[in-house]
Model the fold of this input.
Amino acid sequence: MPRYAELAVTTNFSFLRGGSHPQEMVATADELGLAAIGIADRNSFAGVVRAYGEARKRKIKLLAGTRLVTADGFEVLAYPTDRAAYGRLCRLLTAGNLKAKKGECCLGFDDVLATSEGQMFIALPPDRLSRDFTERLEALARAAPRRSFLAGAHRYRGDEPRRLGHLTELGDRAGAPLVAVNDVLYHAPGRRPLADVLACIREKCTVAEAGFRLAIHAERHLKPPGEMARLFADFPEAIARGLQIADACHFSLGTLRYEYPDEPVPPNKTPQQHLQDLTWEGAHKRYPKDKYPEGIPADVERRLKEELALIAKLDYARYFLTVHDIVAFARRQEKEILCQGRGSAANSAVCYCLGITSVNPDNSNLLFARFISEKRDEIHLRAIRTSARGHLRDGHSLSRAPRHRRGGQGLGIDAGCHGGARQDGVGPWRGFAR
Done:
């Protein structure tokens, strides 16, 4: 039985271009028996998240990619082979979006070449081949040797053997061998009318006026391996290369996790070491010799050691340093910004010694596991409540904090800036609960 991987799939996350949801694409590909499917939306990874959710329920391999479209129209599918390559693509798209107005992405061909490390590239030829395209294909192959390919899609015209043969020769000369794709826009033929309507909206015309701006057939849907093998019977290597590309791509969204931003700490110190120093310094202030002749109470000292050990194990030190920094900033203003630890944060001896909360653990028997639990692998984010209403009227607020504090995700502030954690629906990294 033939095997096939469809690596040119556009979903409805390519605005006014794709006619099917990512979930529909993945489900249909699996039902048709495809070995793999590559989701590559226009200058975006937007569609791969829902595609990944569907792929987790199935056996089909999902490739997370993007269709890079430069400002002058060069198009290439990019599939990262590992986590580092995925990061480079994300930075490329972020930079392109920042240079363009909303809804657009400004990329240059040189930008694409600069991110070539670790990418599998599949260049999409224009309707009419040109010297400029050939030169760029050669440049792409030099930047990503043995990782650059030329897409060939069957267009159901009388000259397909000749056209595909010409593309094969071009790819071989340029160092970018031909790979078979169907350049899919919808998961099933029945979505072709919707795709036509989307095209008309994009082109600002009616269906009657669209003419050649619409596809001439309804073939840009997912096809079973046997059908693709029949269409490319004279080019079996093009089918095989799609499978080779899929095998070479080891990156999966499942390897991603939220990564908390780096926290400024003194030279030659780790965040954990700095947190421990601040905690013990605060503990000596909280339990001065004049009130506690024997020093820090033994039970409090034990709790501090246990909490610091768990914080180190879960790598939460940077979060505690962020909250401590915000509290310190609020309290050193000429007109102090009132702030108070709240909720389960009051169960923490570390929070008390850092000045975040005011509940003395020596006078309470609160359960730290309500705040941080290794089994639950999460930390309740709303650690502080600021009395921001009056201070905002007087022109004092946490927005005056150092720049690296502003706009951050989920800094644990319940008034003034807690919306930062809600903008993307998650806290600063995996396991942070709201």
